[in-house]
Amino acid sequence: MPPKRRSADHRRADAVAAGMRIIAALGPSTAAVQQVADEIGVSQPYVFRLFGGKREFFLACLDELEARVRKVFAENAAIAPGDPFITMGEGFRETVGDGVAGGLLFQALAAARHDEVIAARCRALIAGVLAEVQDSSGATAEEVADFFASGTLVLVLQAVGADLTGGSREAVARLRATEESR
């Protein structure tokens, strides 16, 4: 019996999962879409048909990124309602540990400089994550901004290959010590 064909919804989910990893590394290029197509066993034109185009595929990857990050924050805030930022931060570091979330976000931010549709989606993603953190934690806007700034520092340090063992403050101290020893 021939293998059962996957539905378009399953193919979309497969493409987004692969696309997040590949676009994080290569950017939202046609070559990246070809690599996604190869990985999930379809043609590149089929990937474009699933989403309506390269930009729409990229936006679908950003939608999934937002959903994952929001879920992590909501679930981890519920674990420690007294001080949710600790568990939310741990969940975030675990989520971004493989470099995919940060890489995809940085690719989106770079593309946003020249594409208003992607810029609008990035703004909506950031607003959605900020709202999730505030709603889940009950924190003030200022506390949420500080938490978000710490998370951004983690992404930046990760992107430049800093050793995050021991946390971002230790990584910053090591970087400063390295710079001072030059």
What does this structure look like?
It is a single chain. With 182 residues, this protein is mainly alpha-helical. The chain has a single domain, classed as Tetracycline Repressor, domain 2, CATH 1.10.357. 79% of the residues lie in helices and 0% in strands. It is built from nine helices and no strands. It is globular. The mean pLDDT is 92. One of its GO terms (molecular function) is DNA binding.
Summarize the structure.
With 182 residues, the chain is an all-alpha fold.
- The CATH superfamily appears as Tetracycline Repressor, domain 2
Put simply, the count of helices is 9
Distance between the termini: 66 Å
Overall average pLDDT: 92
- Residue share in β-strands: under 5%
Describe the biggest sheet?
A: none
| Broad structural category | mainly alpha
Overall shape: it is globular
- Structure summary, number of beta strands: 0
Radius of gyration (CA) equals 18 Å
Under CATH at level 1, the class stands as Mainly Alpha
Give the H and E element order: HHHHHHHHH
What's the domain count? 1
Low-confidence segments: none
Overall CATH architecture: Orthogonal Bundle
CATH topology: Tetracycline Repressor, domain 2
